[in-house]
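Table S7 (text form). Paired inputs.
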Amino acid sequence: MIALYTAGLGGTTSESDEISGVGITQVGQLAYVINEWHRVNMN
């Protein structure tokens, strides 16, 4: 999932390290939101 997401932002090539870093941060936040959403809806 992370690889697909960062690839959508330009992959992990040397000229897009900054973009990939932002993408990884966003994936982490998205994963947290999804996890919380599932936790709430499973109860």
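Next pair, protein 2 of 2.
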Amino acid sequence: MDYKVYPNAYYNLSADGMAVHHYYIDGERIASRVNYLLPSLTSTKNENTASAEDLLQRLKDSDLPTEIELDISTDRNVVNRGLYYLHNDHLGTSSFVTDGDGDPTQFYLNFPFGEIEERDSSRPLKKN
């Protein structure tokens, strides 16, 4: 089953675990951050879970690095996929999207009445 949940204008979540946080200035969306929730958060199954002490002991026993990676969110259940900036035209329509490094990821060419004439995209963020 595929679905999306839009609890408010600042956040949406899809069935595959993609969470998008939107950032606004004066009511105009300027950026969106794409995160993927780990499957344990999006699963609806009732599963037995280990205690916190057991998980901490397993982590200590493993040979995982103790340093925090920069591309992982401070929330341990979220993998950060990037920040995307929306570049609006004079009508407020997002016609160009760049990633956090300034590299173009999406381009939209609109008809005068607002319908999208042409699109080009290479990344997971979709203007929604």
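The radius of gyration is 19 Å.
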